[in-house]
Specification:
Blueprint lengths: L1 H23 L2 H9 L2 E5 L8 E2 L5 E2 L1 H14 L5 E5 L2 H9 L5 E2 L7 H6 L2 E3 L4 E3 L1 E6 L13 E6 L4 H11 L4 E6 L2 H10 L4 E5 H8 L8 E3 L7 E3 L2 E3 L3 H19 L7 H7 L3 H6 L6 H4 L6 H8 L3 H8 L29
Parallel strand pairs: 1-4, 1-5, 9-10, 9-11
Antiparallel strand pairs: 2-3, 6-14, 7-13, 8-11, 8-12
Helix pairs in contact: 3-9, 3-13
């Protein structure tokens, strides 16, 4: 009898914990719907990823993730507001609830995923750390940087990667740290450091800000893995699923040949089962996410599929002209792969 009572007590305790957890589920979506917009944390000005154009509008591949979430939730990609954040500020802003999503060229690591109360919803850009140098320095390889002064941004994975690389290759360096990415570029241009290190995508983005970009080159070495993607707080699976499947919808749409130009026609006329499920013609997959039936239609119609967002912001249609490389679809030699809507 004592065992039975104890068992019942333990069961009741776990049930109470479960109810408490369920009570927290969906809090972010409810808050977003009540205020009428998604608050998105972005970088403090990185061309191709998140920056403001001449008219003051936010643009970039990270910005498009946020706009896509707004399109899924509200049917309106413009129902989003942006908070520019430094590398040091970004995680605190997300953890405190200041932003609903962090979409800020942020690397997915074990310590961030497991030790900071965060969940990475996926990878919207596969990257790796490299080095930007003045051609006047006369080096062709990172192996020639022994004794160099290296500019880097504080609060990023680049600091540890830099230390690891130089130590592994028996070289010494002098770190020159700054809080903002723009400060590192200005320091390189002013000669305060010999080389700037960051994710290669950032190096190409920062290079175009220089007065004479052709005087600088990105060295061939890639010294790390930097899977970048949108981040949410742990403890709200409902919101996590929405952000994750928003990104997956964009990737699946590209794979299925669904674009911003043909999505409405495909939603009406396609006979392909995968297209019909994605676009809401068959099944109730939006309902599973607590989203409207046409959630994926609105994403692709208003923001585009993954390939459209890539090319427009960082690819061959952009000033950066970065090749797809690892960010090509899995069936075209790349790493971008999304589970099916099924």
């Amino acid at each position: 009898m004592k065992f039975t009572k104890s068992t019942l007590a333990v069961t009741a305790a776990f049930a109470a914990i479960g109810l408490s957890t369920q009570a927290q589920a969906g809090a972010t979506l409810d808050a977003v719907v009540n205020k009428g917009f998604v608050q998105c944390g972005v970088s403090d000005g990185l061309p191709g990823f998140s920056y403001t154009d001449a008219s003051g509008q936010y643009r970039g591949i990270d910005v498009d993730v946020c706009r896509a979430v707004a399109a899924a939730v509200f049917g309106d990609a413009n129902k989003v507001r942006f908070s520019p954040l430094t590398a040091k500020e970004r995680f605190t802003a997300l953890q405190s609830g200041e932003v609903d999503i962090l979409s800020r060229n942020t690397t997915w690591t074990s310590s961030r995923d497991a030790g900071m109360g965060l969940n990475f919803a996926g990878v919207n850009y596969y990257d790796g750390q490299g080095f930007l140098v003045s051609k006047r320095l006369g080096v062709k390889s990172a192996r020639e940087l022994d004794g160099a002064a290296v500019c880097t941004q504080s609060g990023t994975t680049t600091e540890l990667n830099l230390s690891d690389y130089f130590r592994a290759n028996g070289m010494k360096y002098t770190p020159v740290n700054f809080d903002k990415s723009d400060e590192t570029v200005k320091a390189l241009e002013a000669g305060r450091c010999d080389v700037l290190t960051s994710d290669q995508s950032q190096l190409y983005a920062q290079r175009i800000k220089l007065a004479k970009p052709d005087d600088y080159m990105v060295l061939p070495e890639v010294i790390s893995k930097e899977p970048l993607g949108p981040v949410v707080r742990q403890g709200d699976d409902e919101w996590f699923n929405i952000v994750r499947w928003t990104l997956f919808a964009m990737i699946n749409a590209e794979e299925l040949g669904v674009t911003s130009k043909n999505v409405e026609q495909e939603a009406k006329d396609s006979k392909k089962p995968d297209v019909r499920r994605l676009l809401g013609a068959d099944g109730e997959y939006g309902k599973d996410l607590k989203l409207p039936k046409d959630w994926a239609v609105q994403i692709v119609k208003q923001v585009g599929n993954y390939g459209e967002a890539f090319e427009r912001n960082v690819g061959m249609e952009s000033e950066l002209k970065i090749a797809r490389g690892q960010n090509a679809l899995w069936n075209k030699g790349g790493l971008q792969y999304a589970p099916p809507v099924r």
